[in-house]
């Protein structure tokens, strides 16, 4: 199944736009309870205004909230960014740390966020257990665990460490494009022959094909038709 994912999504990557570790960290914090597409609409203006951890630490709350308003829960997110900026300035000279144990001490940062930052900003392998990842690996029978940390460790034992970051991207891509929560596109899924949950969604190719999303749709359907 992993080899198939590699073939289906060779160029999978974080779908948040960023140019440095701080921007990625902020973008991931903002992505809670909203879409990456929405975050990417907000961050160009935000990143132009707030370029350093000190900028966030010294931000005027009402102004910062206006930048974040359309991301949902904007007051809580503004709190996180103010606290994040202050913590980075006070503890890490304004730089984003590159260790999991340090990252998870920051306001608004859990293991999922930390692993995204480590894998994509610092090339430190990490497994990102978001809702898509957890749903899919349970559907596939890779683990029965529900707790994200236990899921992370269980899958980490199955897959070589160097593959963790790309595996995370590819599983999340598949969850967004094919293996939907309510109606997975089973009949048009390239992984269907190996999937123990085949039949959770429509099994007819033509019906399932209409459920496949994303810019890779033609590539996905071509591989599914072959297999």
| SSE ordering | HHHHHHHHHHHHH
Largest sheet at a glance? none
Radius of gyration: 19 Å
Mean pLDDT: 97
Sheet-strand content, in percent, reads under 5%
Cofactor: [4Fe-4S] cluster
Protein name: Endonuclease III
Organism: Amycolatopsis silviterrae
Keywords: 4Fe-4S, DNA damage, DNA repair, DNA-binding, Endonuclease, Glycosidase, Hydrolase, Iron, Iron-sulfur, Lyase, Metal-binding, Nuclease
Summarize the structure in words.
- This protein is an all-alpha fold and 227 residues long.
- The protein is built from 13 helices and no strands.
- It has helices spanning 2-8, 21-30, 36-49, 53-57, 61-68, 74-92, 100-103, 111-121, 131-139, 148-158, 164-177, 205-209, 217-226.
- Helix 2 (21-30) packs antiparallel against helix 8 (111-121) and helix 9 packs across helix 11 (164-177).
- The mean pLDDT is 97.
Structural descriptors:
mainly alpha, 227 residues, 0% strand, elongated
Short summary:
The chain has about 230 residues and is mostly helical. It has helices at about 1-10, 20-30, 35-50, 55, 60-70, 75-90, 100-105, 110-120, 130-140, 150-160, 165-175, 205-210, 215-225. Helix 1 (about 1-10) packs across helix 11 and helix 2 (about 20-30) packs antiparallel against helix 8.
């Amino acid at each position: 199944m992993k080899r198939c994912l590699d073939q289906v999504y060779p160029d999978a990557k974080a779908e948040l736009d960023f140019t440095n570790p701080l921007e990625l960290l902020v973008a991931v914090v903002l992505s809670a309870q909203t879409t990456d597409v929405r975050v990417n609409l907000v961050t160009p203006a935000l990143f132009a205004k707030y370029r350093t951890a000190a900028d966030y630490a010294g931000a005027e709350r009402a102004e910062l909230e206006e930048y974040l308003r359309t991301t949902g829960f904007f007051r809580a997110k503004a709190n996180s960014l103010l606290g994040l900026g202050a913590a980075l300035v006070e503890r890490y000279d304004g730089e984003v740390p590159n260790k999991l144990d340090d990252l998870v001490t920051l306001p608004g940062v859990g293991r999922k966020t930390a692993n995204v930052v480590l894998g994509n900003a610092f090339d430190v392998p990490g497994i990102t257990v978001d809702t898509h990842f957890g749903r899919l690996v349970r559907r596939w029978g890779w683990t029965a665990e529900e707790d994200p940390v236990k899921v992370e460790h269980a899958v980490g034992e199955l897959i070589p460490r160097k593959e963790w970051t790309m595996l995370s991207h590819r599983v999340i891509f598949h969850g967004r494009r094919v293996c939907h929560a309510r109606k997975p596109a089973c009949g048009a899924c390239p992984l269907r022959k190996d999937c123990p949950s085949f039949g959770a969604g429509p099994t007819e190719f033509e019906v399932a094909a209409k459920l496949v999303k994303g810019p890779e749709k033609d590539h996905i359907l071509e591989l599914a038709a072959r297999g």
